[in-house]
Amino acid sequence: MIVAGVMSGTSADGINVALARLRGRGFATEFKLLAHYEFPYPPAVRRAILELMNAEEASVARLSRLNFLLGELYADAVFRARQRARVTLELVGCHGQTIYHQGEREPFLGSKVAATWQTGEAAVIAARVRAPVVSDFRPADIAAGGKGAPLVPFLDYVLYRDSRAGRIAQNLGGIGNLTAIPAGASANDVLAFDTGPGNMVIDALCERLIHRSYDRNGTIAQRGNVLPEILKLALEHPFFSRKPPKTAGREEFGRDFVADFIKACGRARHEDIIATATQLTARSIGIAVRRFVLGMASAARSHSHPSQKTGERVGHPTLAKVGHPTSASVGDRCAYTEYIVSGGGTRNPTLMRLIRDELKPLGLRVRLSDEFGVPSEAKEALAFAVLAYESWHQRPSNIPSATGARRPAILGKISYA
Amino acid sequence: MIVAGVMSGTSADGINVALARLRGRGFATEFKLLAHYEFPYPPAVRRAILELMNAEEASVARLSRLNFLLGELYADAVFRARQRARVTLELVGCHGQTIYHQGEREPFLGSKVAATWQTGEAAVIAARVRAPVVSDFRPADIAAGGKGAPLVPFLDYVLYRDSRAGRIAQNLGGIGNLTAIPAGASANDVLAFDTGPGNMVIDALCERLIHRSYDRNGTIAQRGNVLPEILKLALEHPFFSRKPPKTAGREEFGRDFVADFIKACGRARHEDIIATATQLTARSIGIAVRRFVLGMASAARSHSHPSQKTGERVGHPTLAKVGHPTSASVGDRCAYTEYIVSGGGTRNPTLMRLIRDELKPLGLRVRLSDEFGVPSEAKEALAFAVLAYESWHQRPSNIPSATGARRPAILGKISYA
Known about the structure:
- Two copies of one chain form a homodimer.
- The first copy, chain A, is α/β, with parallel strands linked by helices and 417 residues long.
- Chain A has helices at residues 43-54, 60-85, 122-129, 138-143, 153-160, 200-210, 219-223, 228-235, 238-241, 250-253, 255-265, 270-293, 306-309, 319-322, 349-359, 379-392, 400-403, and strands at residues 2-7, 14-23, 30-40, 57-59, 91-94, 97-108, 111-119, 133-135, 166-172, 175-181, 191-197, 336-342, 365-368, 413-415.
- The two termini of chain A are 16 Å apart.
């Protein structure tokens, strides 16, 4: 089956389309990536998305129209990708553009709800592309008691599980997130969570301070010096000490965080501020790996899974049994030997160097997903092709140990052409 | 197949659930209505919905949470309906709560888009009810070039088509809408459009002027006298002279319209104001039937279908050919003999009397949908059970001549349990 995966991340740069030939099923799904393209959003659309994502209040009409406009843009992107690659599409999986995400249940009108919102009308894509579309992947996981994220661990497990090597897959998008797969792990043993900002804070600072959309090749951070007081302060954000599973977004590291960050930096040099944000991403990854994957330092907390507390995951092995060691068994961390990175952040050599510096002492070799046949920028789009393929065949594809869901769920909604 | 249809209309009173046994396919679908229930919204939820529907600006977090909360409430309603009726459900069709509807394409960020937005998360319903759910019916029609409304004509055609009698089906919800089915008509001959306010303006005036949610039994209007100047002014709203297909909503007859209406009434008595609004609904129906169904008065405009102008409906018979007479053939109007009403407005005897007064001179006998086996309040919910049944079997169910779509479309998105 030839499937297109369509992704547009929190940085709202544009639309990634991956075309893949898929066969098999579940974790035994095999794929061949046929092509991958990136189409930037028109500037006015990008501005509108960023504005709405950061807004407390937004125009109902604009939100509604944006859904349909993005549907058109996604359809165009798939159309162009299909034409360039000269393939006949049988299915599209479209993540959509996240407008809001709140993985935790909070009080609302006398009830308690979690919520997630991806926009980009699938009916428009299906009508233009003349193929069925799976969209809106996250709500089904939330309905199953999960946080609706992360969903990429399914592909990570398909790609990286290994009988002998424990591997950590890291994505560096707007937000950073990792998937830890112990050697010989079953899907229930997978741990996944957001590590904090990926490129989001760096990009926002570039925009605000020097009117560039990102730190190309990491040259600005390369010239700067980290401001240790600012770094320390930023790392005090409660997100970093919160136990996984956990998700982050613009709610945590968006406009407000960046405004505070700039304010705290006072009259520091721009390159120092950007260097500090780059180190923040690297350091927060180092902390997350040490604390929550390898179980070092405050490790006693690292595997107190909320759904285990409530006793709802009866029948699932607990994480402690299967490879996320407690502080009492730190020696087991040797089981993790590889750290495999994907996402736009891989194109920032300064960030990559800082991450290597963080992880080398932990015995982790830093690799790129490209070495596993998945170009760094294609991985998330490919993930939604694979998830769509599973949903189309009515098979679940959330990883409950990653999202905190009580059970597997068939993700997404199907729109027919 | 046992299917639940779930509807909550623009008046946001609550949730209607119809349970039906369905068999057959397309226009030959047969149904048996098993039960029908109405569950009021919790007052805080109703207030939040009305507030968001009328808002220019709204909180992104609230909109996102409302989607999930309504999913829970819809699930509860289906759950309770199923328990009371003691049936095993195989499918749910849920319309959702309309937050925004713009059937016409308008400029937006360098493109032109129409838009529609129904909220109430289907993934939550599917998870709680453990049955697949079809939701979000309108976008596929918009993607096919239609206005996304009205969709009930599919059921009207299934129910009311007759080889000898021309029939008009009228729904009196928040908005009034009619479906005209000439004697012996094919589905392409069906004309459908919104007539203007149903109960929406009456209800809003009751709320604003006398703090009641509606004019129970029409007693207030019964006591009042119509204010002819105000009625004339209100009928000058451009919606009433616009040619079908056309749709109305809170954008046309919501808060702003009501505020202007009250202002124009000055110091008139409350019962006169409410009597005038009741006459407005009845008169606007009379005008719509005369002008756009029977082709009287300014009839030359009544069938200039926009998509016919663009020549896009090649292969479809034109309306003029098949039973919507031009002014040159007014005599044909005798073909219409019945006017069949459903919706909450049927419980307002004053409104019903005024409508009868409008239609009797046109040779139309006013009947209730109840006589055709569909209780007035159950009809819209039943319609979404029938539409879901069609979509589940991957069959289209929009009526292009009603919505203005260029082609039939499979409506809705499927969420698996």
